[in-house]
């Protein structure tokens, strides 16, 4: 279930992305600062829809690897 604070947060982020043309991560950082949210608690404000859009955007911009592209970490010892 999506809380009102998650809905408000997501709307503010979406508005910034669409009107200012900034990335989702930049918009999240701006809204966190504007709403005086502790960065360590921002996950409470991000609903599944926003999380999915952030992941898609980051994968598209190659900021993160898509989950199917993850490689196994190198082995330290054989």
Summary tags:
78 residues; mainly alpha; 3 helices; 0% strand
Would you kindly provide a written description of the structure presented here, covering whatever features stand out?
This protein is an all-alpha fold. The chain contains 3 helices and no strands. It has helices spanning 4-20, 24-34, 48-60. Helix 1 (4-20) packs across helix 2. The model has no long low-confidence stretch (mean pLDDT 81).
Describe, in short, the structure shown.
It contains three helices and no strands. The chain is mainly alpha-helical and 78 residues long.
Which class do the helix and strand fractions yield?
mainly alpha
What share of the residues does DSSP label as strand, in percent? under 5%
Mean of residue pLDDT values: 81
Largest sheet entry = none
- The radius of gyration is 15 Å
Which parts are unreliable, with pLDDT below 50 for 5 consecutive residues or more? none
Helix-strand topology string? HHH
User: Helix count, per DSSP?
Assistant: 3
Question: What separation lies between the terminal Cα atoms?
Answer: 46 Å
Approximately how much helix is present in the residues? 40-55%
Kindly state the number of beta strands. Answer: 0
Q: Which overall shape is indicated by the principal axes computed on the Cα atoms?
A: globular
């Amino acid at each position: 279930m999506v809380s009102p604070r998650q809905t408000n947060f997501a709307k503010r982020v979406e508005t910034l992305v669409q009107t200012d043309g900034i990335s989702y991560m930049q918009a999240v950082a701006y809204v966190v600062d504007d709403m005086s949210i502790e960065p360590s608690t921002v996950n409470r404000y991000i609903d599944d829809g926003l999380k999915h859009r952030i992941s898609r955007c980051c994968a598209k911009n190659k900021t993160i690897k898509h989950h199917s592209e993850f490689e196994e970490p190198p082995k330290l010892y054989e």
